[in-house]
Amino acid sequence: MENTNFEVVFEDKLQRNEMIEPKDWMPDNYRKHLIRQISQHAHSEIIGMLPEGNWISRAPSLRAKMVLLAKVQDEGGHGLYLYTAAETLGISRDELLDALHTGKAKYSSIFNYPTLTWADIGAVGWLVDGAAIMNQVMLQRTSYGPYSRAMIRICKEESFHQRQGYEIMCHLAFGTPAQKQMAQDALNRWWWPTLMMFGPTDDKSPNSANAVKWKIKRESNDQLRQRFVNQTISQTEYLGLTIPDKDLKWNEERQAYDFGTPDWTEFENVIKGNGPCNKERITARVKAHTEGAWVREAAQAFADKRKESAVAA
Ligand code: BYC
Questions:
Q1: With contact defined as beta carbons under 8 Å apart, do 211 and 29 qualify?
Q2: Which of 27, 68, 70, 165 could form a disulfide with 126 if both were Cys (CB 3.0 to 4.6 A apart)?
Q3: Distances in Å between the alpha carbon of 232 and those of 123, 189, 196?
Q4: pLDDT digits (tens, 9 = 90+) for 235-287
Q5: How far is residue 78's CA from residue 67's CA, in Å, rounded to a whole number?
Q6: Which atom of ligand 1 is nearest to the CA of 49?
């Protein structure tokens, strides 16, 4: 009986668009769903640092290096906000990281592709961060308070990331023919994997029904993918580049672009761990974690010492 009342309060809060907070009662499946999504999101942020970090030492100017360094550092910060938000649901950082390192937890498919040239850093910022923002803007109004607040801060920083990428694309697209070709090549390789970032089509998305019911997701995978395509075409035209999709065309009736179908078999393979860089990413992450053990130990020793002094005082 008591449990039913809790459920009524929970549903009522959702109806009124009030946030659910860590100490509020919530259904077990809502908690599990959030731990899955927030932790996958956190993992994506820290794995996302790897393909870009790969270019810090090879950025073509001091300015480009500073900007990229700041961006990659922001992503580490985003991971921190998101892991902290997930921890409020009663799971520890160690458990979350263990799931990532042992391949039990997913992270975004997009980070299993290689960044072969400097233009890829432009394409990642422009397309990947652009897609991430499209998804994350709606998550600012997600129903779980700590996730929503983390997203508000993350979105502010992501806008700068998207501009950083577009600026690189502008330099290359308006540069020499060889530079323009480099930009086109990066667009060709990143376009379809970026569309896959939004997840499977709505009819094949098992988590969407609950996500929408619980107001975790406010828009569907397909709606966001369509909005991203609509928004990106004029940016591509300005660059004088071509989207690698022969089915792309404006649909007057729908007032939206029609576009081709991503290779969903490739997507399935990547999320099963068989993409071009899955193994490399996890190996690099585990190595960083192992080599960072002394930092965690030092931080813990410092925290223990402070606690001891506070008790003694
Ligand atoms: N990659 O039922 P569905 C970023 C999985 S950007 C891997 O539609 P859901 C960044 C899905 O997890 C990227 N797996 O799921 C940008 C599920 O498997 P499980 C991170 C994917 O949750 C720049 C299954 O497929 N952003 O961080 O309703 C620089 C069925 O899918 C993907 C976020 O994580 C994928 N692309 O919708 C640095 C945003 N798509 O878990 C960093 C928050 C689907 O049942 N997350 N799957 O085994 C979301 O909005 C949603 O989780 C998704 C998927 C839209 C990604």
A1: no
A2: 165
A3: 12, 16, 15
A4: 999 999 999 999 999 999 999 999 999 999 999 999 999 999 999 999 999 99
A5: 17
A6: 38
